[in-house]
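Dear colleagues,

I hope this message finds you well. In preparation for our joint manuscript, I am sending the Trace amine-associated receptor 13c-like (Lates calcarifer) sequence together with its predicted structure, so that both groups work from identical material. I would be grateful if you could confirm receipt.
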Amino acid sequence: MEALEEIELCFPQVNTSCKKLTRPHSKTILIFSVLWCITLLTVVLNLLVIISISHFRQLHTTTNLLLLSLAVADFLVGFMQMPAEIPLFGGCWMLGDLICALNYFLGFLTVSVSVGSMVLISVDRYMAICDPMFYSTKITVKKVQLCICLCWIFSAVHSSWILRDVLKQPDKYISCYGECVVVSSFTEGMVDLVVTFLGPILVITLLYLRVFVVAVSQARAMRSHIAAVTLQRSETGKAKKSEMKIWLLYFNSCLNPVIYVFFYPWFRKSIKHIVTLQILQPGSCEVNLMYKGTVMG
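The corresponding structure tokens are as follows:
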């Protein structure tokens, strides 16, 4: 039986078929169950973020537009990429060479957009904390929208360049039928590493170090400016929350909306409106989500 399992093919009718990976049945069920749960959570939670920011006009701020871009990228990961890649844990790709190439393109695209959005968010928080007097004039909705568009365009161009060979010839690196792999050169790998990892980490780290220094200075100033305690505490809290979110965002698309749930009261209030279908009521987009005194309906 073990010998037969070792030579089980993904496509028995095809001579060049890849071999299936054999695992204990219980382990396979556990792995697939966990993966599908993560996928479902990623889709649902990021969809809630998208609906919240898109529906409620009060949330149409520059920072939230950047969070919306990030949520859209994460939603695409959960809705399209994760379901397509889960079967690969069984050792077989069932969707053909073209979909394989497009799936890799989507993966590179969403990662680039996510990283780009995090860099933009760090710039936004840097300006808000370190240069608050000019924040509203330098960081406008139109400028943020332009930056988001450029981020997506650059990510698409970058992904197309990295995967140009595979997009032209989807089966170029396929050694057996049912395989889904992409091979990149050393130069392409280094460029991608710098553009989507090392460079962004350096920028984000430098910006948040500056934010931290300013936050510490503000905290010290509180001792001698009692009247400004409330304002300073609010700004310092936002800096720390944003910093925490930035680093957690880097690890998993599913974590993003969970972070929002814990750190943003408006997100919890918006979820209540969405789950109870209050967003279907006339004028629901004008609801005030920022203050505790808001009537939730």
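For the figure legend, we might mention the following. Residues 1-5, 225-252, 293-297 have pLDDT under 50 and may be disordered. The radius of gyration is 23 Å.

With kind regards,
E.M.
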